[in-house]
Amino acid sequence: MDSKNLIVIVLAAGEGKRMKSDIPKVMHPLCGKPMINILLQQLNTLNFDDIYTVVGHKREILINHLKQTFPDMKFVHQIEQRGSGDAVMACKDAFKKFDGNILIIAGDMPLIKGETLKEFTDAFNEQNLDIAVLSAFLDNPYGYGRVVRDGGDFTKIVEERDAADTQKSIKEVNSGIYCVRAEHLFRLLDKIDNFNAQGEFYLTDIIQIGKSEGLKVQALSFGESDQFFGINNREQLASAEKILVARKISKLQSEGVTFINPDTTYIELDVNIGKDTVVYPNNHILGNTKIGQMCNIGGFNTIKDSTISDNVFIKGYCYIDRAAIDRDSQVGPFTHIRPETIIGEDCKVGNFVEIKKSVLKNGVKASHLSYIGDADIMEGVNVGAGTITCNYDGFRKHKTFIGKNVFIGSDTQLVAPVSVGDDTLIAAGTTVTKDIPPNSLVHSRVKQVNLSNMGMKNRK
Ligand code: UD1
Ligand code: CA
């Protein structure tokens, strides 16, 4: 059978009661991404014609979200959440003219891998089956539907709450992934009832009915057991995230990245890190962050949506958000780099320096205690300790421009908008309020007065 003839149904209408949340369950993030997005990405391994998501509980939020990331997604509304069987049944009209295969996936199992789905659907085709359930063997099968076999022959799925004690010891479980020939699916669903512990229409009941009709039904098992983790509560959400982080770190390790004490680093799925970079303990590396090769990421940084080129040294305790740092630069410790900051090559930004929406060209140094906001700082500038760009007048933000090779003495205030010409020397303690032509010496100090014999010895 041609695997092209495949439609996917994702079940995501359930209320997710056990999450105790106002957010639809499948939108809860794992490693910074809604779990449904993680699942949907895995479907790329399959050659499907169409994809439907069954929505219900909080559906506006979910539809709005999915339309942005998966514009081809179609939606089916399950009006009342009466069980997984009822959810698939809601697709009936949409599938009237379809006679291929239908892959059904519960939306709450983001750890599944695309390669496993491919093996499963390939086996379904090769064995010419009518219904297949992807099963898994779990040490702790609690909460899952059990795969009941009679002399090895798959007969039915029994839910935890409906299972007899002897059935509860079965370790083969229903993963929540099914492949069914469309010509049978809706006919079988017409026959299921809700006479069970939860009073729900169970999709899983099509197994027993299909068997009784003589259809070819199998439970097939592929992939490691951690892929079948279903998320129903916050504890499982946290456990699933742990698995995803461990997978991500092990992939980066295989690509040549060193993690020291990796259990302490939290890293999101889209992060890229080049080889021979060393990540010290307790880092949070988030979003679309790219880190180059040979970098040294000291402990306790948060780096979010940022690009860090090769051979950069982040010394630790830094918060870096939506910024770019070019090669051979050094940042930290205790540096706050805020969005839209671009730091050039071979720069040095030191402790207690905050930079916002500014450009530092190559070789700029701001080693201590500064606020740099809305500033363009040209090559080779030295920003002395305690320099502040006064960019905000209470109403608007203003820009500061500093030309090449300027030396800014310590404790200088630059009252923006203001522009400093190349090669200028600003003396320590200057308040710059006017534009400065190139190659100037600038100071704005009041004259120092020394009064003799009025020091501490004269005070009682
Ligand atoms: C389900 C399976 C169980 C399996 C487990 C795997 C059934 C009856 N049981 O149990 O055998 O081991 O998944 O994780 O299917 N949904 C709807 N509409 C509804 C009810 C549910 O769309 O009316 C969706 C949910 O959003 C969810 C999926 O179906 O994505 C599964 O529902 P859930 O309540 O999580 O089922 P489990 O109890 O986990
Ligand atoms: Ca579930």
Give a brief outline of the structure.
The protein is built from eight helices and 39 strands. It is α/β, with parallel strands linked by helices and 460 residues long.
Word description of this protein:
This protein has 460 residues and is of the alpha/beta class. The chain folds into two domains: 3-228, Spore Coat Polysaccharide Biosynthesis Protein SpsA, Chain A; 234-442, UDP N-Acetylglucosamine Acyltransferase, domain 1 (3 Solenoid), CATH 2.160.10.10. Helix content is 17%, strand content 30%. The protein contains eight helices and 39 strands. The strands form six sheets. It has a 16-stranded parallel β-sheet that branches. Strands 14-17-20-23-26-28-30-33-36 form a nine-stranded parallel β-sheet, with no helix packed on it. The protein has a seven-stranded mixed β-sheet with strand order 5-4-1-6-10-7-11. The N and C termini lie far apart (101 Å). The mean pLDDT is 96. Bound molecules: uridine-diphosphate-N-acetylglucosamine and calcium ion. Residues 106, 108, 230, 232 line the site of calcium ion. The site of calcium ion (CA) has 4 residues, from loops.
